[in-house]
Structure formats: structure tokens, C-alpha cells
Amino acid sequence: MQRVLQRTIILITFILALILAVMPMSLAIAPFRPEWPLLALIYWIIALPHRVNIGYAAGVGLAVDVLLGSTLGFHTAAYAIIAYPAARYYSRIRNFSLSQQALLVMVLVFAARLIVYLFEHYLNNAPLMWHYFWPALSSAIFWPWIFLLLRKTRRKFLVR
Fold it and tell me: What residue segments make up the domains of the chain, in order of their start?
């Protein structure tokens, strides 16, 4: 029963992140929308690498593809590629301070956005718009709060 509750808590956080990813925003701040699903994914990979792995990353990426209406597989591939270094170096990342983790998150989100852009550019001839990469900065700004909120949730519900 405890294991089912733990899985449910992880899935609820991903569902909430997906809801935040498609929530309507003002056009003035929409380019700065953080990559909520990727932030949740990075947190859970760092916190529980034996439970949340590249398979979860592919599932969350597929959900993002479906919700955003992008070509299937673009976010799936990007999230899976980004999940690998997070899973590979989770023990090192855990020892970073929150500001160092935020910088790393900024690099990972930028890389994910770049991967999706490259797919879009080569397959759909998408033009480069610099505001496309602003979510990397906003994700880094929100990372400390997301980290602390998800850690508190993980500890409250004894997710291991």
C-alpha cells in the first residue's frame, strides 16, 4: 500500500507540472514560462534515481508533446537525453548548493529547449527566436522553490 501511495505522489507532481505547462498566461510573460515538467523530472531523478529514470522522462516528454500539440517525440527525446546526465551524476548534483543546482538546471533546460528547437528546425523549418530560450532562465530562478517544495512533499509522504 505504501508503494502505491509513493507512486501516486510522484505521478500527482508530474500531473500538476503538466497542468502548469498548459495553464493560460498573459502574452507579456508567456515567453518566460518555466519548464515545469522538466523541473519536476529533474528533481525526482536527483532525489530517487532508482524509481524515476529515463523511462519516466520519456513518458513525461510524450505527455508534453501531446499537451502542447508538438510533433510526437520531440520533447520525448529531449527529456530522455536530459534525464541521462541527471541520473548519471545524481550523487554529485545532490551535493551542490541550491544556486549551483539552479545553474545546472538552467543549462539542462537550455539544452532541452535547444534539442527541441533543432528537431523543429530540421524537420519543420522553424525560425530561431531568442525568446524561445528564456524558459531556461526562469526555470533556474524557480528551481530553489520547486526543489524545496518537492522535497517537503517527498518527506511528508515518506516517498522513498
Answer: 2-24+32-156
Alpha carbon distance 55, 145 (integer Å): 25
Whole-angstrom distance, CA of residue 133 vs CA of residue 21 = 15
Asked whether 138 and 32 are in contact (CB, 8 A), the reply is yes
- DSSP-derived secondary structure letter, 30: G
User: Is 138 within 8 Å of 110 (Cβ atoms)?
Assistant: no
What number is the average pLDDT over the span 88-109?
Answer: 97
Residue 66 grid coordinates: 501531446
Is this model's pTM higher than 0.70 or not? yes
Average of per-residue pLDDT values in the chain: 95
- How many angstroms separate the first and last alpha carbons of the chain? 13
For residue 4, what pLDDT is reported?
A: 87
SS3 content of the chain, % helix, strand, coil (to 5): 80, 0, 20
